[in-house]
Write a structure and sequence with these properties.
The chain has 332 residues and is an alpha/beta fold. The chain has helices at 33-37, 44-66, 85-102, 111-122, 162-172, 179-187, 212-224, 230-258, 274-286, 304-315, and strands spanning 2-7, 12-18, 24-31, 73-81, 106-110, 130-135, 140-147, 150-155, 263-267, 290-292. The structure holds 5'-O-[(R)-(carboxyoxy)(hydroxy)phosphoryl]adenosine (KG4) and zinc ion. Residues 111, 115, 136, 268, 301 line the site of zinc ion.
C-alpha cells in the first residue's frame, strides 16, 4: 500500500510518499531553521504559523514528485506527538481532513517510533530484535525493539537531551543554532584530548543519560578560560563532542550487552554526526555488534519515517478517529 506521511512536530514541514516495500517515492522537507536561527532556537508560535503556510504546498509537491495520482494513496500517516502542540495540530488536522475527504485510513504516529522506523528505510534487511537509540534535540532514549509494535524503553535522559546539549554549548561559544553541525565541523580541526570534560555514566547498570553536568563543566571552563579565537572554540567543541560520543557509545553497548543483542540502530538528528557513527561502528565491531545508521537525509525530522511507521500501524489496524488529539509529551 502507498502511504502519504506528514510531519510537523517541530520546525520542519514535511510530506513523503512511501510504497509497500519501504521505498521512498518522494520526501519533501520545508525547513524553518533560517527563521528560528535569528532567535537562537525554535519559537513555537512562529513554527505553527509557518506550518500553516507551507503544508498544502509541501503535500502537493510530495504527491507530484512521487509521480502518483491521489487515488493511488491507500493510507495517511501523520505525527501525533511528542512535539509542539500548535505545530503538531497543523499536520495532524491536515492529515485528518485528507483522510476523511478521500475515505482513507489514518495513523497517528509517535514521533520517536517514526525515528526508529527510519532504520527500516535505511536497511531493508534489518531484522528484530535490535537496540535502538533516538537521539535528537528533545530526546535521548534507548529501546529494545523486539517486534513491529514492541518498543521497550531501557533508558532515557534525566535532564538535557544530547542534541539540546549541542545547541546550548553552541550558544555558549557563540556559534549559532542549531549547534550540532557547526560543533561537528569545528571539532574536526582539533585534538579532543586537549581538554577533559566529565562523562556521566550514572549507576553501574543504568542505561539512563545525564548531560547537564557536562554542560555546566563546559560553562565553567569557558568562564575560567575565555575563548578568544576560533581555535579556542574548536578545542572546547572537540572535547565536548568527544565526551557526548563516549557516553552515547558506552550506554548503547551496555544496553545491547544486557539483552544479548547483536544489532544497534541509531536515529534522530544527532545520529547525523559522522564522528559519532564512525566511533560507534569501531567500538561495536570489537564486540561483534553491527551498527545501522540512516543516511543523513533521514536522521533529522522527515515524513518518510512517519509514512513507514504509519504503514505498519495501518496494516495492524491501529487507526485514529477524527476525535483523536495530538500530544506534547512522550507516552512511550
Ligand atoms: O531529530 P531532530 O531533527 O529534531 C528533534 O526531534 O529534536 O534533531 C535536532 C537536533 C538538534 O539539537 C541538532 O543540534 C542536532 O539534532 N544535530 C546534531 C547534528 N545535526 C543535528 N548534533 C550533533 N551533530 C550533528 N551533525
Ligand atoms: Zn525528531
Amino acid at each position: 500500500m502507498i502511504v502519504l506521511g506528514i510531519e510537523s512536530s517541530c520546525d520542519e514541514t514535511a510530506a513523503a510518499v512511501v510504497d509497500e516495500n519501504n521505498r521512498i517515492l518522494s520526501s519533501v522537507i520545508a525547513s524553518q531553521v533560517a527563521v528560528h536561527k535569528q532567535y537562537g532556537g525554535v519559537v513555537p508560535e512562529l513554527a505553527s504559523r509557518m506550518h500553516v503556510e507551507a503544508i498544502s504546498r509541501v503535500v502537493t509537491k510530495a504527491v507530484h514528485q512521487a509521480g502518483i495520482c491521489l487515488s493511488d494513496i491507500g493510507g495517511v500517516a501523520a505525527t501525533r506527538g511528542p512535539g509542539l502542540i500548535g505545530a503538531l495540530l497543523v499536520g495532524f488536522c491536515f492529515a485528518k481532513s485528507f483522510a476523511w475527504a478521500r475515505g482513507l485510513p489514518l495513523a497517528g504516529v509517535n514521533h520517536l517510533e517514526a525515528h526508529i522506523h527510519s532504520l527500516f528505510l535505511a536497511d531493508q534487511e534489518l531484522t528484530f530484535p535490535f537496540t535502538a537509540l533516538v537521539v535528537s534535540g528533545g530526546h535521548t532514549n534507548i529501546y529494545h525493539v523486539s517486534a513491529d509494535n514492541r518498543f521497550s524503553l531501557m533508558g532515557q535522559t534525566r535532564d538535557d537531551a544530547a542534541g539540546e546539549a549541542f545547541d546550548k554549548v553552541s550558544k555558549m561559544l557563540d556559534l549559532g543554532y542549531p549547534g550540532g553541525p557547526v560543533i561537528e565541523n569545528l571539532a574536526k580541526t582539533q585534538d579532543p584530548d586537549q581538554i577533559r570534560f566529565p562523562r556521566s555514566l550514572l549507576e553501574k547498570d543504568s542505561c539512563d543519560f545525564s548531560f547537564s553536568g557536562l554542560k555546566s563543566a563546559v560553562a565553567r571552563y569557558i568562564h575560567e578560560n575565555p575563548v578568544k579565537s576560533q581555535r579556542d572554540k574548536a578545542r572546547v567543541a572537540a572535547a565536548f563532542q568527544a565526551a557526548v560520543i563516549d557516553v552515547l557509545c558506552e550506554k548503547l553497548l551496555r544496553a545491547a550487552r544486557s539483552i544479548s543483542c547483536s544489532q544497534i540502530g541509531i536515529s534522530g538528528g544527532v545520529s547525523a554526526n559522522q564522528t559519532f557513527v564512525t566511533t560507534l561502528v569501531r567500538r561495536a565491531a570489537r564486540k561483534k555488534i553491527q551498527v545501522i545508521a540512516p543516511p543523513i537525509s533521514l536522521c533529522g525530522d522527515n515524513a518518510a519515517m512517519v509514512a513507514a511507521r504509519g504503514a505498519v500501524m495501518i496494516r495492524d489496524g491501529c487507526l485514529c478517529s477524527l476525535d483523536d488529539d495530538v500530544f506534547s509529551r512522550a507516552l512511550l
